[in-house]
Design a protein that fits this description.
This protein has 10 helices and 8 strands. The two termini are 33 Å apart. The protein has a 4-stranded mixed sheet. The chain has one domain. It is of the alpha/beta class. A hairpin with a 2-residue loop joins strand 5 and strand 6.
């Protein structure tokens, strides 16, 4: 991806130089109904490998708009990030700026104003509007503070554990999470959350899959429009995104974790579905091409 010497986003909260974590104490507890709703999701996440939480964990964080650990925090100094990590930070900040511009144009074309999300870069753990963020959760979007949380070490794990690396793989992940921000701004997340409260687990999971596949499609939509405007793509970039989408499909991750897949438990979509919807967004390039709820 062509990105150097280009504009970076100003919506970056860089916390990599200080680690903010829980120090114990009492935080507010969720309602019984919320706990019952979250239990199947949390159980699956806790019982799997690191990859089970990546990318789509943002959707889980949406329903976890509380801190189950603590309302108190403490900070400790960390060593300065490496030159490589600083380069990654510059890269992802540049990608975020591209995403901001593309979505700003799309919202304007539809008669709306796009409110840009924040991006929080951290190392190890930090706290935010959805409670405690930990590196093993992977990147996620928190609607409570309209921020994307990213520990840059995640991208090394993506390559090592899932063989899904490359700079455009990173761009795809960020664009997917910002896709959840778009869903938050247009009311999709709230509508789905309300609908899930009226159906059983199987149908609730199916609705969640639609949310995630739409975010994949939005990532493709961004790539399509960014290429037209900035000419950013290099040979192999789209393949990197498709490979990543495939590597983090529910069926692939479940087979890695337990040797078999349970389709009714999918909450993010199969490898084929995730790759397919990214392609639909890239080839269609419009909001209409990303309607996964039809």
């Amino acid at each position: 991806m062509i990105w150097k010497d280009r504009e970076q986003s100003s919506n970056v909260d860089d916390r990599r130089y200080a680690n903010t974590g829980s120090s114990g104490g009492g935080g507010s507890m969720p309602s019984l109904g919320t706990m019952m709703f979250l239990f199947p999701i949390i159980k699956k996440l806790l019982g799997t490998k690191l990859g089970m939480g990546i990318v789509a964990i943002g959707a889980v964080a949406y329903f976890m708009g509380f801190n189950p650990f603590s309302s108190n925090s403490s900070s400790q100094s960390l060593s300065k990030p490496s030159a490589q990590e600083d380069e990654q930070a510059k890269f992802i900040s540049t990608v975020l700026r591209d995403v901001e511009i593309v979505w700003g144009d799309i919202f304007k074309a539809h008669g709306s104003v796009y409110k840009e999300p924040k991006m929080v870069l951290y190392r190890g753990n930090t706290t935010g509007g959805c409670g405690e963020a930990k590196s093993d959760m992977g990147p996620f979007y928190c609607p409570a503070d309209e921020s994307v949380y990213i520990d840059l070490g995640f991208f090394d794990e993506l390559q090592k554990k899932h063989n899904a690396g490359g700079d455009f793989a990173v761009a795809y992940v960020l664009a997917h999470e910002v896709g959840h921000h778009v869903q938050n701004r247009d009311g999709t997340l709230r509508k789905v959350h309300n609908a899930q409260g009226k159906v059983g687990e199987k149908d609730g999971n199916a609705l969640q899959v639609k949310v995630e596949l739409q975010a994949d499609c939005y990532a493709g939509l961004w790539a399509s429009n960014a290429q037209k405007r900035f000419n950013i793509l290099e040979a192999g970039d789209i393949d990197e995104a498709l490979n990543t989408a495939s590597a983090i499909g529910d069926d692939t991750l479940q087979k890695e974790a337990q040797g078999y897949a349970v389709p009714d438990s999918f909450t993010h979509g199969s490898s084929a579905e995730r790759s397919s919807w990214f392609k639909k967004g890239f080839e269609g390039g419009t909001l209409e091409s990303c309607d996964t709820f039809r």
